[in-house]
Each structure stands twice: as structure tokens, then as C-alpha cells.
Amino acid sequence: MTTDNGSTAIGLERLTENLQRVEALTQRLLAAVSHKKAVRPALQGPGHDLFTKAATAYVTEMMSNPSRMIEQQIAYWGQSLQHFVDSQSAPADRRFSDPMWNEHPYFNFIRQQYLLNTKAMETAVAQMDNLDTRERQKLDFFSRQIMDMFSPSNFLGTNPQALARAVETDGESLVRGLENLVRDIEANNGDLMVTLADQGAFDVGSNIAMTPGKVVFRNHLFELIQYSPTTQTVQEVPLVIFPPWINKFYIMDLRPENSLVKWIVEQGFTLFVVSWINPDASMRDTGVDTYIEDGFIAAIEQVKKFCDVPQVNATGYCIGGTTLSLTLALLAQRGDTSVKSATLFTTLTDFSDQGEMSVFLDDDFVDGIAAEVEENGILDKFFMSRTFSFLRSNDLIYGPAIRHYMMGETPPAFDLLYWNGDGTNLPGRMAIEYLRGLCQRNQFADGGFEVCGARLHLSDIGVPVCAVACETDHIAAWAQSYRGVQQMTGADRHFILAESGHVAGIINPPQRNKYGFYTQKSLVESPEDWQSSAAYTAGSWWPAWREWLMLHSGKSIEPRKPKSPKGLKLGNAPGRYVLK
Predict the structure, then answer these.
(1) Which residue from 82, 132, 143, 267 has the fewest beta carbons nearer than 10 Å?
(2) What is this structure's pTM?
(3) CA distances, 571 to each of 178, 252, 563, 564, 576 (Å)
(4) How many CB atoms lie within 10 A of CB 337?
């Protein structure tokens, strides 16, 4: 706060200048929003009719069981009055970490009343009758979304940090925040997508995705990268990794200190990684069969050819693991033994319980996706990004929005968040086949998934399998991943449960000593019983996986150096496709 006439005049002058900047930014904001493309109602968000049904159920409950509703309401009133008289202590919440939320009576009251309101809504939803399990799950999810959105930390007038920053900077922080907001809307054609990382801080191939290697094969679907050896000998059986084509492969090769690719090479494995193309409308008819035949099987054949071996070890990450599993089942039916062992990272093969993702897999939402891809040929990365963001809205939407738009901060130079924003599209036919046949109908685990002229079952998979799931994974719930592995029939089925989530649990280099993992020798009946009897090991699971992989990798031989096919110069890693 200013204390003398001179400094007060300077402060007023700065405030006036900032107000003029706000006026110009407002015009840009209006122009940017006017370019927003209309989104079909079904893709605005699933469950539009759910709250109407929930409201009806609530009224019905009031009529049939008024005593319970009155009891809930009186309890809520009593807690509110008690809170006003003597504020209660509240559990830790990162949104309210600033000391002002506790020390200032006004902000302390708002914080605790908000938490009290949230608890009341959770109780009301949990005790509501006349809803089936699926509807209750959806209502719980969207109720939490509403409560997260209305957190007092999300609004300038009730965020002490943002108010203090605005006073300290004479409004400069708010103007910078508005500049950030306008820039994000302009960059996304009128839609608001919060930028999570500094877009100018990273350059793929220069300061991320730097592990040396060469592109040794390219077709219409993928580039195959072979990485340069760094050890005096390598294992005879090469390893090929299939990342998801929902994202780009370099999540496994961000920086040298957290690169899984670099670490694998340093362990003495000949490593190949598939880099998928970013689909456009010309690929509308690319289906799951295309990815299996022209992607997985083609890559396996190329690796066998380059290394002059009859078998490879294969790894699939997320949807890459799901499709690798389909490929293994198909190869088994064909009598093809090209894959010696398979590793599955955060992979679902049994979709009987999709966890939090289930709210986006009902017909209302999937029908909207079907109409979208029929019109445009692809499912634009915008929809996938927004869907996954809402699964962790406080971390991926509201928290960054507060920092960038209210505090005026520049997005951080964070490699993982940069990768998270570098999304890809999905081919139209493939997206619908995956959502309908696997996610909705669970055909791979129940009845068989028809593709490539065969009906594939989980029980077809008999090769040695190591599955790595993550304890707090919000995309591929670990218990469901476990149930899928149980239905495979190989004698060697190894399950590793890593701490943390879908990405951080996998990209967990040993030198960080950050997250541990659980293992045990057998697969018991329930995943919960498995975890309760499993042995816990501190530190990264990578060395444990190496030990398992070594059992299936043959003898030590001279290192294989990557070479471009005769007459072709396909370039160095990370290749061309990753830049599209």
C-alpha cells in the first residue's frame, strides 16, 4: 500500500495504464470468443439429462421419506451455525495452502463453509435412492465437478493470494492474467484450454527426446526408431515399445535424467520405439485392424528383420498395451511365435469396470463422438484433452487457471506438462471401434472381439506377461488391469503395482528414489487380497522389470548399430512424425 503523495500518484498512473490495457484486451477477448466453433450438444459433456433425473429422484425421496431429508437439512443447518460460532479445523487441501485461509477470519469462514457445503452434497448424493449404480456414479462425478468449480479459490473476490498480488502490483497481475487468457482463447479458436507449460521452453529433438538413434523404417502409420547402443554387449532378443497413439512417444524420453528410453539402452537392450503419425481426415477409415496389421505386426517383422532374430520382446503403454494384447491373441490363433514376452504399462484389457472414465462411455457421449468423426473423419485432440483434464480438474484446469489468469504467472517450463499439451487426433473408425467394441461392450474379455478375420479372446494370450499398473491411476484403474491379466493363460504372469499415477508411476527413474512398488509371485483371487499380501519395495520398479526381462532376452552379443535401409535416408531420432 502506498504511503506518500508521490508514490500514490505513481500507483494511480500505473492503475490507469492497466485499465487502458484491459479495455484493449477485452476487445481481443470478444473477437477470439466469436471464432469459437459450435460443439454438438452431446459433446458438451455426458449426462445432460442426469441432473433432471437426480432432481426428480430427490423430490421423490422427499415425498416418500421426508424424515431423512429433514434430518439431513437440520444437520446441515446445525453444522453451519456451529461453524459460524466456532470454526472447525478442516483437512489439508492444496487449494487452501496459503496461510491467509486460516489466519484471516473472512477467508477462514469462506473456506470452511465451502468444505461443509461439499460434505453436505456428498452425503445427499450417497444417500439418494431411486438411482442405479451407473447413474449414482455419474451423479457423484458431476456433483464433484460442480463443487470443484465453485471453490472460493477459483474467484478473485474470495482468493486472498490473488487479491494480495493485485494490490502489490497495482493491478499488473490481473492485466497479465487477462493477456494469458486472451492468448489461450486465440490459440484454440475461441475455446478455452488452459496452457499448462511454457510452449517456448522446449524443442522436440533439441532439449527433449534427445536420446541418439535413427529412423530405420517408415510407413503410412508409424516411424520405427532404433536407438544407438551404449554398452559393450547387448542382449540377443531386441525390445520394441508401442506407445499409445493418443499421445506422442517422447513421454518415455523427456530429458536424460528421466528418460526411460535412455535407461533401457544403458541396461544393454537393443531398443526400438514406434512413433505413430498424427492422423488427419484422410485416415478416417483407419481402424483397429489397420493398427494391428500395418502397425504392430509390421513393426515386429521389421525388428526381426533388422536384428536377424525369430522373436522379439514387446511392450505396450496404455491403449498401446491394449492393442498389443489384441495382437498377441491374433498371433496365437495364427500360430505365430514372433513375440517371446510382453510387458503392459497401465493397460486395460477387461473393461467391465472403467472407473471414473465410465461417465464418458455412455451412449449419449459416444453417440456424439460418432457424429463428430462421421463429419470430420477424426476425433480431434481437443476432445480427448478436455476429457482427461476433467478427470483431474483441480490439477489440470482450476489450479493452472488461478496461477495464469488471476495471479498473472507465466506457465512453468515443465517437460511433462509440455508433453501433455502436445496431443494427437484419433482416426474416426478406430475411435468408434475402440469405444463401442472394447470399452462399452467389453468384447475382448466377454465373448470375443472380432478383428482381422478372427474372434479374439483374452484367454488366447499365453506368452510370458509382465504388467505394470499404477496405484492412483485415474485412467486405467490398477485393479481392473489386474483382472485382465488374470484371464490370460500363460504360466509366467508377473504383476507389478507402482505407486503414483498413469504417467508419474511409469516415468519413475531409479535415481529419484521417489515412488515404490508392490510385487508377489502369484495372482490371487482378488486384487485387494493381492495387494494386502504383496511385498513392498522402496524406489523405482525399473530394476525389477529389468530382472524379469533379462530372463526372456537370450545371450549377450555384439552391439547392433542402427542403419537406414539401403538407398533410404530416413533421418535421426526423434523422426518426422512426432513433429506433426
Answers:
(1) 132
(2) 0.85
(3) 42, 20, 10, 8, 8
(4) 11
